[in-house]
Design brief:
- The structure is a single chain.
- By secondary structure, the chain is of the alpha/beta class.
- It contains 15 helices and nine strands.
- It has helices spanning about 15-40, 45-50, 55-65, 70-80, 95-100, 110-115, 120-135, 145-170, 175-180, 190-200, 215-225, 260-270, 285-290, 295-310, 325-335, and strands at about 55, 90, 180-185, 205-210, 230-235, 245-250, 270-280, 340-345, 350-359.
- The protein has a seven-stranded mixed sheet with strand order 5-4-3-6-7-9-8, with helices on both faces.
- The N and C termini lie far apart (about 65 Å).
- The relative contact order is 0.09.
Length: about 350
């Protein structure tokens, strides 16, 4: 279609224009639906709906002591998004399969992260400034909720893979842990991995290191709640002392400003017969290969908001970002840091690869 008032304007395929508009509005709709999912989490509506069978807004209001009218609008929104089933907009049903994804006691799911609250206006302003100055935000710059956000995103998968699958896969690791290994988690976050290991292998000693004040505060709180005998330190890898039999770095090397220094620190504090267990984002060396990932745009957006931002929060940061530590680069990082072998393990986790690294 040409513009009669501007004959030099390019001819446009209006069907393509309409398709682009639908695509843009679909992203906007996803943003709004995500907020509604977050509201459902905060109000514990997913738990209320799990196993409840078909319910009306009035019945859900009685069960939750919330406003029927507001619940009706929320239920219709979730039905329109095909998360909750409804044929008439009056009776609603959260299927067992949907509950397995949306409810906290679900199976393997990353949906907990998708239901976290949207970024604050202050965070968006900070990101704009990062584009101008090149320096990003640390995790603590996001506020205390970021530690809980990361825990929600990854805690479920750690619980289903670390002890049941990863530990048995690594030769000799179960026996080492049962005998009472000294274990460190560098970039421990809220401490989910260490608590799981301490529960499964109580003879060991467990130390968690993280630069985030909020993450360490949450880790200590969780350890107290669970009765886990784990020590947490608000510090980086350079604060490690003594020799460790097992070291973990889960979902954090690509977020670090200087992962090369962290790897070198770990190598200097790991026993010669020890093992470093790494969990990192599945990615490839080229953009073309990464296009096979249906969530690729989300992962780049996440990198700008969190991962690359954290990795550039100091002027000398390497800035790897969410997709920056593909297997070849990770292997290079480990060998340069003084390790000798890197073995890749792929479990039933669509977002991560797992690595067994030996001195």
């Amino acid at each position: 279609m040409t513009d009669a008032n501007n004959p030099t304007a390019p001819s446009l395929d209006m069907d393509a224009v309409a398709a682009m508009q639908r695509r843009i509005w679909a992203y906007r709709q996803g943003q709004q639906v995500q907020l509604m999912m977050h509201i459902g989490k905060r109000l514990e509506l997913w738990e209320a709906l799990r196993g409840a069978g078909p319910v009306s807004a009035a019945q859900l209001a009685d069960a939750t002591d919330l406003s029927e009218r507001w619940l009706l609008e929320w239920l219709r929104c979730m039905a329109a998004a095909d998360i909750i089933a409804s044929s008439d907009g009056e009776v609603f049903h959260l299927s067992d399969e949907a509950a397995a994804v949306m409810a906290p006691s679900s199976m393997l799911t990353y949906a907990g992260s998708a239901m976290e609250r949207p970024r604050s206006p202050e965070t968006v302003d900070h990101i704009l400034e990062s584009f101008r100055k090149g320096v990003g935000m640390s995790y603590d710059d996001h506020g205390a909720h970021e530690a809980a956000h990361v825990e929600a995103a990854f805690g479920n998968w750690i619980a289903h893979i670390l002890v049941p699958q990863f530990v048995p896969k690594v030769e000799g690791l179960t026996a080492k842990l049962e005998a009472g290994a000294r274990v460190a988690d560098v970039g421990c976050g809220a401490g989910s991995a260490l608590r799981l290991l301490a529960e499964a292998f109580p003879n060991g000693s467990y130390h968690g290191y993280d630069l985030s004040e909020h993450a360490i505060e949450l880790a200590r709180k969780r350890a107290t709640q669970s009765g886990s005998d784990v020590s947490f330190f608000e510090a980086g890898s350079d604060a490690m002392e003594g020799e460790y039999d097992v070291v973990l770095t889960f979902d954090c090397l690509h977020d670090m400003t200087r992962p090369d220094r962290a790897v070198a620190d770990i190598r200097s504090h790991i026993a010669d017969d020890g093992v470093l267990l790494v969990k990192e984002i599945r990615s490839a060396a080229t953009f073309e290969e990464n296009r096979a990932n249906p969530m690729l745009a989300m992962m780049y957006a996440t990198s700008i908001q969190v991962c690359m931002s954290s990795a550039l929060s100091e002027p000398d940061g390497l800035g790897l970002g969410t997709l920056g530590l593909h297997p070849d680069r990770l292997t290079e990082l480990m060998l340069d840091g003084g390790f000798s072998t890197v073995e890749t393990h792929a479990f039933d986790d669509p977002f991560n690869l797992y690595y067994e690294v030996r001195p």
